[in-house]
Amino acid sequence: MANIIEITDFEAPELDVFTRLTENQLLNRHEPEKGIFIAESPKVIERALAAGCRPAAFLAEKGRVRGETWEIVERFPELPVFTAEFEVLSKMTGYNLTRGMLCAMYRPAPKTIEEVAQGARRLAILENVVNPTNVGAIFRSAAALNIDAVILTPDCSNPLYRRAIRVSMGTVFQIPWAFVDKELSWPEEGVKKLKSLGFRTAALALSDDSVSIDDPKLMSEEKLALILGTEGDGLAKATIADCDYTVRIPMSHGVDSLNVAAASAVAFWQLGRKK
Question: Which residue intervals define the domain tRNA/rRNA methyltransferase SpoU type in the entry (predicted)?
């Protein structure tokens, strides 16, 4: 039987994880094994559970503790399910709950580049992409368009930030991902690491010596790591210089570039196609 607890004390410390802790506090860099993330909506929570993530507590709109929400919470009778009316929860959390449900979950153990690259044919590398909305959108495109894994440089937004999870529709739990180790300098050692794993590297950037995204040689590469840069400035010059290819997406009407999330979708569709 689910452990339903109606909220009467809005200041109760057990609600901090849902209402008062920042993303950095949830991440808990000093004790990463105690880190928490927030998954929103039954579909996203189910994807997290399917990936092996462990729930810690639930927050649900009172009128929605039924149907697919009930199917989830009744599997964890030992965990608290805090409930209140929709208006109360929206005021507490500062936003409307998608389909009336949040779940606080323990962060999974981080993976290494070697682990996520094993058996992969196409990798997406994100360099300093700081907007969690863009990170989430890139993951969703990666999942839909045959990208096998995502690797992020240390200054990227974390894929387990609530907004990134929400925008990705939970695909951050379906696509393997890893951060470049902070002790591994980027791009010098990081790009070398990718090449040592058998990947040719392609920088998505505007350059006079770039090749088109549909270049036959590029598309025929057995293992390819596509590197996308930060919003606004794009890839660092050193990153472009270290890559095997510089790749551009042909444009029209005088447009010089796309948002990194939009560019990723175009590039993934072209380069992720099955042989």
Answer: 124-268
Tell which residue, 112, 18, 103, has the closest CA to residue 53.
103
- Domains in the chain (CATH in brackets) are 3-106 (3.30.1330.30), 113-271 (3.40.1280.10)
On whether the CB atoms of residues 146 and 175 are closer than 8 A, the answer is: no
Amino acid, res. 17: V
Task: List the beta bridge partners of residue 177.
Answer: 150
Residue 166: name the closest of 110, 228, 232, 99 by CA. Answer: 99
pLDDT, one tens digit per residue, over 94-134 is 665 655 789 999 999 999 999 999 999 999 999 999 999 99
3-state secondary structure at position 82: strand
Phi, psi of 112, rounded to the nearest 5 degrees: -95, 165
End-to-end CA distance of the chain: 50
